[in-house]
Amino acid sequence: MTGPGAPSSSGGADLGTAAPVVCCDLDGVVWRGDEPIAAAADGIRRLRDAGLRIAFVSNNSSQPVAEVTAKLERFGVPASVDDVVTSAIAAAAMLASSLAPGSRVLVCGGPGVVEALEQVGLTPVREAPSEAVIVGFHRDFDFAGLARASDAVRDGARFVATNLDATYPMPGGTMLPGAGSITAAVATASGRQPEVAGKPESATVALVRARFGDRGVVVGDRPSSDGALAEALGWPFGLVLSGVTAAIARPGGEAIPSPPPRYVAADLGVLAAQLIADFT
Fold first, then answer.
1. Which residues are catalytically annotated?
2. What CATH number should be reported for the domain whose range is 54-213?
3. What is the pLDDT along the chain (280 residues), one digit of tens a residue?
């Protein structure tokens, strides 16, 4: 791999004097649904003990940030709200840069989107009229929600997707429909394509740089979003096979790219040893 943050030919890391931040995805890296991935907490502990900062960059917009950090804590991974960036935060920041304070935004998503909008001074609503629509992952998506969102988009509201991940990994190798699947329904019904805020888009790239700096490594289970974010940042990518990616893609999943990224490991526990060797 070449570019800023790529491993040097000597085997170490050419990242300047500061240690890089390790930006970890959550779904498929730290947990699958409500079950922790066994090696993740220990891998994160070892990375921190080696002096690396850990951040969490998730395309899952459904939960408020405090609920994300509480889940991390429950799974043995202490974290603060400042350590977490979600696609809901990216979507809200993108809208706040162009909409007037207090503007109404129709939420076709979960509580994480509501929280993010309120924090930037926009008004989340569930009914039209609205100046924008945000679509994100939520388990209670139904026909009425589809009708409200697509009607608003057809009426001229700005159409924003938190992300386009088609699926989220669950225990036992199953997958849930993701935000990309919900967004596809709204796009089909409205006849318009969305702007996208989450990984690997520019709104998330800007948030990561602003909060965590210019040196880092992206760790994730999905080359199309996590790997593409690493490429957009000019950082190395560590692919873990504990989520949606396998040597041969499963339905709804992804395959290991050819050529593969610099780092490929079964899980974060195995990957941690590789990162510690190269970046400390």
1. 25, 27
2. 3.40.50.1000
3. 333 233 332 233 444 456 789 999 999 999 999 999 999 999 999 999 999 999 999 999 999 999 999 999 999 999 999 999 999 999 999 999 999 999 999 999 999 999 999 999 999 999 999 999 999 999 999 999 999 999 999 999 999 999 999 999 999 989 999 999 999 999 999 999 999 999 999 999 999 999 999 999 999 999 999 999 999 999 999 999 999 999 999 999 999 999 999 999 999 999 999 999 999 8
Mind giving me the DSSP string for 145-211?
HHHHHHHHHHTT-EEEES----EEE-GGG-EEE-HHHHHHHHHHHHT-PPEE-STTSHHHHHHHHHH
Q: Is 61 helix (H, G, I), strand (E, B) or coil?
A: coil
Full-model pTM:
0.92
CB 30 within 8 A of CB 243: no
**One-letter amino acid of 145:** G
CB 40 within 8 A of CB 234: no
